[in-house]
Amino acid sequence: MHIKEGRPEVLEDTKRVLWHYSAGQPGPVLVLLVGMHGNEPAGVKAVKKISENQEFFHGRFYGDVYAIAGNLKALEQGVRFIDTDLNRLWELFNTQKDYSNKNGAMKPVEYLESLEIKRVIDAIIARHSDNLEDIVFADLHTTSSQSCAFILLNDTLANRKLAGNFPVPQILGIEENIQGTLLSFINNLGFRALGFEAGAHNDEISIIRSEAFLYLLLNYAGNTVLKNAEERKYRDIIEVYENVPNTYYEVIHHKLVDDPAVFQMIKGFENFLPVDKGTALAYENGSLIRAPKSGRIFMPLYQKKGHDGFLIIREVSPFWLEVSGYLRRSSIHRLLRFLPGVTKTGSRSFEVDLNIARFLVKDIFHLLGYRVTEKNEFTLICYRR
């Protein structure tokens, strides 16, 4: 599928670039990523609808907007992926697990797709190299369960500031639990990036919410200025359900699934539904799985592809967000290397020996803006976002 561009200027990869519109003058650069999973067409359809609204852009647009297609082959077949999840590959580049290092091995279709996407992203960054601070990325998705709209973000102050404009829940630090996402790859390049989840895969409302989000994003990124009535209209469309607090959340449990064919989520769970510890949630190989903690269910798996069974999230106090914002702008980072069990491994990274540093390690590093992952059972890797 190729959507006709708004202006003649377009990158060479016309198959991958669904749409490009330029004001012909300097301004913010918005890069939209749609269809990373082939069973999530809402973002593609929303881009098509906006691209056809030429009257909206005339005389009220600044900078550039690009829309990049994700998994083209999976989109053609309407499946999540062909060989492997395209949105879990992005931290394999330049590692031992990079598919390019596997001589003679069959490379998954998604690896080749990722190379094409990366080539287009690199070309956009190169084209706007004199305006890097004004480049914003947004990745549009839907879920396999019913859901209100919400935003996923790597927890940086710049991402928080942009995401805070939208009247939907914000999920912080998702990259610590779901690794290899394109959002993390973009953030590691130093750009602002948000993920928008519009609702269930095939619901019409998911297309409508995606379109509303894009108009609002164009406004908040500085590409256009919406009229007050327009902004209220689009905010009302994506506004959260009454029973879901519009606030920040963090992940407190992540159920990984080795074989999705033997995992079955119990019917009836929607995103943000409160669950108590001990609630029956799913079956795996015939064994009942109960919630290990109380919180809210998040992204329950109701499809046979994917390895993220479900997550449990909890609300984050606005007070701690304010404290973390203050601490991240301070020079307290310089003192971390003096803490027991903490070893500085790079200009922005530390390793923590859990045999020595046992209490509140993740909380402290999260407050200061670090991504925390496990190197092994007794060692954490903390990297400043």
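The record above closes out task 2.4. Task 2.5 opens with a second protein, given below.
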Amino acid sequence: MSSLTKLGHGIMSRYLASMEYPEYRKLWLATLCSQSASWALIVARAALVFNMTGSATWTGAVTFAAMIPSVLVSPVAGYLADRFDRRTVLAYAYLVNVGDNLVLAILVVTGLVEPWHVLILSAITGSGRSTQMPAAQALLANMVPRERLLNAVALYQATFHGSRFVGPFLILVVLWATGHQDWVFFLCAGLYVLGFTTILTVKTASRGAMQAGKFREMFLGNLMAGLSYMYRHPLILSLVLLVVAHCGMTMSFESLFPVFAQDKLNMEGSAAVLNGFSYLMVAFGVAALVAALMLAGVRSEAARGRWLLGLGVFSGASAVALAMSPNLPLAILSVAAMGFAQGGFMTLSHALLQTIAPDEIRGRMLGVYSWHTNGTMAGFNLVNGALAGLTGLSAPLILGAGGLAFLVIMTLSFGRVPLRQLYARGVAAT
């Protein structure tokens, strides 16, 4: 019994150390709820619009509408996260998503929903999510001691990747229990309600440091501080550019999965497409969660650098494997490999950025980072959907070409000295 107790304490101290802090647990749970709702929405909205229109272009447009607010909103959201109490910013962001998800659920259940309704509400949801992310990530760093920051970030990122499993899995549960896909949208609203009520219990107060002066100059100067810091720091700039390429070439697959399920896996009908899409996303999410939890226990700086390199290569290769998968079981295995590689790569890169970022501009820098990554995924989802819908290019061909392109990028990344040092020695050495 004592050996089991020691084993449990060992796992807690290495992999779940940040869970000892109640405030962090609240933020972690709220984020898991909101991200699960977000990924359930991505699956449900894509299947809904694809079944209403039969158009991959519409599917790509809806996914684009949900992600593009990060280009417009994230920098401002980062400013708000440093200017005001981050708890307040978070609460309002959650409240917006509670409201617009309830509206969408009512429209779907009453049969009044139109594709343009979904498009507009997707943009509102994306705006709320883009406001939530920089505030939550900046607040996180004030909830745990600095020596546990990497563990806290890795576990926090696990909510993003694990939600790719939780959200679609809950869709399957709702479908099995009710037989009606309409109720999935009430599930999403309920998850946001749970996240909102949890955020209201957070007591940790946190905000950044802002320049003084006239409002116009102060606003623009403070808004640009995160962008300026990112572009002037050689390692951060190199890492962000690598992550942007990763997001565009390997992670912009949401608009392609409904088409992939129908054309490559021969799934016909609205329920079949939604089920196929959900199975693929569950496989992705489970593997991504495993990767994030495993990386939470990696303490060596050099090991983190090697993991980043290996996961980047594996991410490109697994996308090629998915493109070549002839049936659902092999597709699920390939998507699980993608989930492990992509989830691990994004977890590790974000943890490294959090380690480098100064707290006084953390919100603005993370807002700019979200602007780059989510904006890239939004744009490439739109392009991929248009390519599949308008040009006749197959979803497997687009997925495979993206994976091969990122393998080339990983090879070229050795040409940048900061990344070469990062792969060899980690952040501390640079």
